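hiii, so i know i said id send this last week but things got crazy w the move. better late than never?? heres the sequnce for the chain we talked about at the cafe, plus the structure i predicted for it. fair warning i was half asleep when i ran it
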Amino acid sequence: MSPTPVLGPQRLPLLAITVLVFALVVAAGAHGWRLGALAGVGVLFGVSLFHASFGFASGYRRLFVHGDGRGVLAQIVLLVLLTLLFAPILLSGAAKGAVAPVALQAAVGATLFGVGMQLGSGCACGTLYAIGGGSGVMLFTLISFSAGSFLATLTPGPWRALPRLEPVSLLERWGWGGALLQLAVLGLLALALNRWQRPRLNKAIPAMPRFSWRTLLVGPWSLAGGALALALLSGLTLLLAGRPWGVTWGFTLWAAKLAHQLGWDPSSSVIWQQERFATALQAGLFEDITSVMNLGIVLGAAAAAAAAGRFSLRIPSSAPQVTGALLGGLLMGYGAWLSFGCNVGAYLAGIASTSLHGWLWIVFALLGTAFGVRLRSRFGLPD
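okay and structure toks below
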């Protein structure tokens, strides 16, 4: 990744965004100090994602199209750090991990998500930080992502009949032995990927941005620096929220609240009749952890962009691009619900929790990515 020139800060947008950040923290904090703190953590997630340009969809695309695995290697580093951070917390019982069944529906969902990432040009967290940076097209991705995940909650019947195995957590089965096994697998994957990609990188690798206090504030950050920041923030989220960082639930809830306002009857849904879903639907937006953190990511990315002088509102360049964003978001939303989460809630949090469903997710998401990159040209999307 080539360093982005650092421009002067955009003081007026930065001031306005700072006021919004303060308002978010206060609104969330009114429902408990932990929610206020998690709003702040969400802001820091947005700053980190933006400054490091830590993209999941783009990392997979560069791997498939250009043989450049540096983005995926950064994800493996992130997973190593998360495993080391999560293991003692989960083993102590201080929080619960993201553990879900190994299910055929999850394989289908992850495949759909992989295709959607490429058509929508972003993942779940990528959509949020791109919006924070001023991307107009990602608003369409967000809208259809929310609609897709909400739609999936209304159609659970056919998927429940598909085969599934009980959840499997390596930590729960073997304690630290399970964590060490996962670390060994991640290390082997990193070595294999580095060896595979090396001859395919025909151009020199740009030098990493040098660390300085100015770089810390206005970027750009290296991918390794981004991985470290995301790992630390994920560990802090686990401690404060009692469960790992997630994104998709916020989108689902936003769509459900809007549908409810438009006349949809939650009692008509098997899912939304359940107590925890019904309670969340009736509660205020700032009482929901995922919603608060999602809003924090948008504002954090906007603040980072303004601090670096790179905040700008960008309208979609073409109708096919908007169509791709809408279709990609719909596939991601529906797929995320089927697969028990997105690239954050199922992939990162799942593997960090040593749950096998996280490994299942990434295998089938990569299969979907392989198909999705072939479709990008039909929507006028670059490689």
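btw Confidence is low (pLDDT under 50) at residues 1-6. thought thatd interest u
miss u guys!!
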